[in-house]
Structure formats: C-alpha cells, structure tokens
Automatic annotation (TrEMBL):
<dbReference type="InterPro" id="IPR015422">
    <property type="entry name" value="PyrdxlP-dep_Trfase_small"/>
</dbReference>
<dbReference type="GO" id="GO:0030170">
    <property type="term" value="F:pyridoxal phosphate binding"/>
</dbReference>
<dbReference type="GO" id="GO:0009436">
    <property type="term" value="P:glyoxylate catabolic process"/>
</dbReference>
<protein>
    <recommendedName>
        <fullName>alanine--glyoxylate transaminase</fullName>
        <ecNumber>2.6.1.44</ecNumber>
    </recommendedName>
</protein>
<dbReference type="GO" id="GO:0005739">
    <property type="term" value="C:mitochondrion"/>
</dbReference>
<keyword id="KW-0496">Mitochondrion</keyword>
<dbReference type="InterPro" id="IPR015424">
    <property type="entry name" value="PyrdxlP-dep_Trfase"/>
</dbReference>
<comment type="subunit">
    <text>Homotetramer.</text>
</comment>
<dbReference type="InterPro" id="IPR015421">
    <property type="entry name" value="PyrdxlP-dep_Trfase_major"/>
</dbReference>
<dbReference type="GO" id="GO:0019481">
    <property type="term" value="P:L-alanine catabolic process, by transamination"/>
</dbReference>
<dbReference type="InterPro" id="IPR005814">
    <property type="entry name" value="Aminotrans_3"/>
</dbReference>
<keyword id="KW-0663">Pyridoxal phosphate</keyword>
<keyword id="KW-0032">Aminotransferase</keyword>
<dbReference type="Pfam" id="PF00202">
    <property type="entry name" value="Aminotran_3"/>
</dbReference>
<dbReference type="GO" id="GO:0008453">
    <property type="term" value="F:alanine-glyoxylate transaminase activity"/>
</dbReference>
<comment type="similarity">
    <text>Belongs to the class-III pyridoxal-phosphate-dependent aminotransferase family.</text>
</comment>
<keyword id="KW-0809">Transit peptide</keyword>
Length: 504
C-alpha cells in the first residue's frame, strides 16, 4: 500500500469499497507517495465520483432493484468528521429532545435540486424537502445567486433604515395575495408567524378565545404550543389558555367522512359552550402537515369562517406547508376551499431553506398593532428578502404550481395502484406534491401500522429514498419533495416503496 493511500484512509475513507478504490486509483493515477494537493484532489474526486455512480446502481445481488433516475451532478469531496464523530458531537452538545428519523442515521453534506448526498457521495432522492422547507430545489442556482449577490452588498440591517429588498419583497408577496391581504410582516419562523397572527386577532377583535383543530400543528413556541392538537408536541407545563380544539374534519378517520358542514357544527357548539360567545379567531392548516397530510373535509372552511366572523372573530390560514403552489390546483391552500382568510401565515418554502416567514393581513387588522412599537431584528433582512424574492420568481418562471399538479396527479395514480396491491396501505391523500400514504394493520379497524411504517421507511432509505412520516401514531408517509421532483422520481419512489412493503 502506498504512503498516499494510507494517508487518504486516515482522512476518513473507511469503508471496504472506498479502501479498495483508494488503492486502485492510487495505482491508476501513479500516486505512490508524497503529500501533494493535486494527488489528493485527484484521488478524492475519483473516489467520490465512483461512489456516487455506484450508489445509483442496483445491488449486484438483486437485478430487480429499482434504479434511481440519472442526474448530472458530481458532489464535492467531503473532508470533515465522520458520521460517527458527528453523531457523538450531537449527543454531547445538542439538545437531547432532538430525534433522528432512521435507526442508522444518514449524514447529509450536500444537496442539489431534488437530491441529497451523504459524506461518501451517495445520492438520495429527497421526498421530504427538509420537512417541506426546500420548495424550488436544494441550492437552486437562481436562489443561490440572489443570496450571494446580496451577501456581497449588505448582509444585515433592520427596518429602522430604508432598504429596497424588504420593501420590494413585501410588494411582490402582497401582489400574490387575494382580496385585501396587502400588509406584510416578516419574521423568522412559522412559530413566530402564528404567534403574531394570534396576537393580531386578539388585538383587533378585543376577544381572547381561539378555536383550533385537533391533530393540528402550528409551532413550538409557548404561544403556539397551545394551538397544537397532538399531545406529542405539548410540553408538560401550563399552556393553551384560551384555546379550544374542535373536532378534526378528517375525511379518512373522522366520524363524518368528507362532510365538512357536519364537522363545522362542532365549532358552533364550542363557541356557545366554551367561550363567552365572542372569539378572537380560528386558525387551521388547509392540509394538516405534521398531522399526516390530512386535507380538511369538503365544504368545511366556508361554514366555519361564517361562524367565526359571526362571533366577532377573524380567520387565520396557516400556509406554512401548503403555500406557493405546492398543492398544484391553487397557489394557496385555502383557495381549495373557496375562502379568503383575514390573516395568512407562511414559512418553510417561502425561503427555500432560509430562516424566513411572514404574516400577511389587511390594513385594518394591521393597524391594531400601531398603538405600540413593533420590531423584529432579523425579520426581512436583506439576504433573506433577496432569497425570498428569487423563490417567487422561480415558482413563476419554472411554472412550479402546474408542475406540482401534473407530477402530483401521476404520483397519486401510481400510489393508488400500489394500494390496490398492498392491503397495508389504508389511504392515499393530499394534493399536488403534498401527499400522505397511511399504513394500517387492518383496513376495517384502521389500526395504525406504526412498526411497519418505520421498517418500510428504513428500507426505502437503504434503497436511496428519504421519506418523511407523521400523524399522531407515526404511521403516515409524508411525501412532500422539492417542487422540481419529476415523474421519473415519482416512479422510482413508488417502485422502491413497492419493494420495501413486499419485504415486510
């Protein structure tokens, strides 16, 4: 073994495949000694390129293994600590409440469009988009260019000064809103956005009580924790004062199926029984994300919005996951139910991974905060605003909403056919590229197949597909990839899922 190859091992090339490659390429490149940068770069590029290529190939002992679509990108060589070292650092220095999705964790060091790469250069299809956060694609060139360009000019200033980026971005966003939703507040996260929306509702109406939904998720701050409708997201402490959770209009598990108005009657009952008869507002996702990609029953929001406004409240639409064309049929999720809210919150895909969120409301509601000072240090900073503007432009120019509709319809068709083959699939639901696949042990009882879901998810990861999961019992696959996800990607995902389920 050459001195060069030995040195390369010490820098993290530890797998058998990589060790053999190091020896092979060392001989092939004539690198038999020394510490030259050129030699190390050649070796690194050769090994990473070959590993990335091999990761897309079927396993040698399985000719039926699905093949990932080709993709013209070579990941950069990785020279950092190993996955084992990173896991050790994480356990020592990060919060113990953090969790990992897989038994054998994946370390991601690079992303490009709908694909992710681990430290060895292996490529994965990203079907979860950083928890529905990467909208137009990992490191999309137009977004990256806009961010880098602004970084070279001005990284940070606040709203106590004039800056063109935040002002132009607010206009760009308001132009995409229906009705009189024309005033924008920029913040940093979905939790912050929902906190502000609830504060606005209470200030504007002079009322306190807020109606939420069971199975909902709106954030992890002390304020938004109370809105959540799953115990798994509630810390054992006093929280939720003034929040009332209505029956969830779940077409699959709900008692009234897809009959929205029947569920809405529970909201009227809550207002009359659990509040003074007047409320501050109602907040809901239009497709519940963390809850398992659950769409609201047909006709639900029109009925509820009338009830809430009749009780003096305002209506808040949480578009943190459903916005910007992801549902395919509409730019905003609430439009699927034919309503216009009074306040809209958005985050995640708004910035394609940047810490960016927004609240959009009417001038009348916005004025309710003007009696006191309001300030957010990082909200709408120039870099995030430049990135957010670029996202809007990419969604438009690349026609991502239409793309989500077309690819999503194809994926639903494929998943529905898969459900006909595997009884463990109890439901396929959602819209566009915000889909859910619920696994159950029995289709009649709908008993959640929690263990089986985890096993299928692990198997799919091993075959190159990174899935998300959700629902109270963790038995729902959340398929919410970057919106550049293609038909070929959809076919690959279904083929991998088919094989993984068959292995149960």
């Amino acid at each position: 073994m050459s001195r060069f190859t030995e040195q390369y091992y010490s820098k993290g090339v530890s797998g058998l495949r990589e060790r053999k490659m190091a020896g092979f390429f060392g001989k092939a490149l004539g690198v038999t000694g020394g510490n030259g940068l050129l030699g190390r770069n050649l070796m690194s590029q050769a090994i990473n390129s070959c590993c990335a290529f091999m990761s897309s190939m079927p396993a040698v002992n399985s000719t039926a293994m699905p093949r990932m679509p080709d993709f013209a990108h070579t990941p950069a060589p990785y020279g950092g600590p190993s996955a084992e070292e990173v896991l050790s650092l994480r356990k020592q220095f990060l919060s113990p409440s953090l969790f990992l999705h897989f038994k054998k964790p994946v370390m991601i060091v690079e992303g490009k469009m709908q694909y992710l790469y681990d430290e060895r250069g292996r490529r994965y299809l990203d079907a979860f988009a950083g928890i529905v956060t990467v909208s137009v694609g990992h490191c999309h060139p137009a977004v990256t260019e806009a961010i880098n360009r602004q970084n070279q000019l001005l990284q940070h200033t606040t709203t106590i000064y004039l800056n063109n980026q935040v002002a132009e971005y607010a206009k760009d966003l308001a132009d995409r809103m229906p009705g009189n939703l024309k005033v924008v507040y920029f913040v940093n996260s979905g939790s912050e956005a929902n906190d502000m929306a609830i504060m606005l509702a209470r200030l504007y109406t002079g009322n306190w009580d807020v109606i939420c939904l069971r199975n909902a998720y709106h954030g992890m701050s002390i304020g938004t924790m109370g809105t959540c409708g799953q115990h798994t997201w509630k810390q054992p402490m006093p929280q939720g004062f003034g929040y009332h959770h209505a029956l969830n209009p779940d077409p699959y598990r709900g008692v009234y199926g897809d009959d929205g108005p029947r569920y809405a009657a529970d909201v009227a009952d809550l207002i009359s029984a659990a509040t003074p008869g007047q409320v501050a507002g109602f907040v809901a996702e239009t497709i519940q994300g963390v809850g398992g990609a659950v769409p609201l029953a047909a006709g639900y929001l029109p009925e509820v919005y009338k009830m809430i406004r009749g009780a003096g409240g305002v209506c808040i639409a949480d578009e943190v996951q459903t916005g910007f064309g992801r549902t395919g049929s509409h730019y905003w999720g609430f439009q699927r139910q034919g309503v216009i809210p009074d306040i809209v919150t958005m985050a995640k895909g708004i910035g394609n991974g940047l810490p960016l969120a927004a609240v959009v409301t009417t001038p009348e509601i916005a004025a309710s905060m003007a009696s006191r000072l309001h300030f957010n240090t990082y909200g709408g900073n120039p870099v995030c605003s430049a990135g957010g503007r670029a996202v809007l432009q990419v969604v438009d120019t690349e026609r991502r909403q239409q793309h989500c509709a077309e690819v999503g319809a194809h994926l639903v068709e494929r998943l529905t056919a898969l459900a006909a083959k595997h009884d463990i699939i109890g439901d396929v639901r959602g819209a566009g590229l915000m889909l859910g696949v619920e696994l159950v042990k029995d289709r009649k009882t709908k008993e959640p197949a929690k263990v089986e879901t985890a096993a299928v998810m692990e198997s799919m990861k091993d075959m190159g597909v990174l899935m998300g999961k959700g629902g109270l019992h963790g038995n729902v696959f959340r398929i919410k990839p970057p919106m550049c996800f293609s038909r070929k990607d959809a076919d690959f995902l279904v083929e991998v899922m088919d094989l993984a389920i068959s292995r149960l």
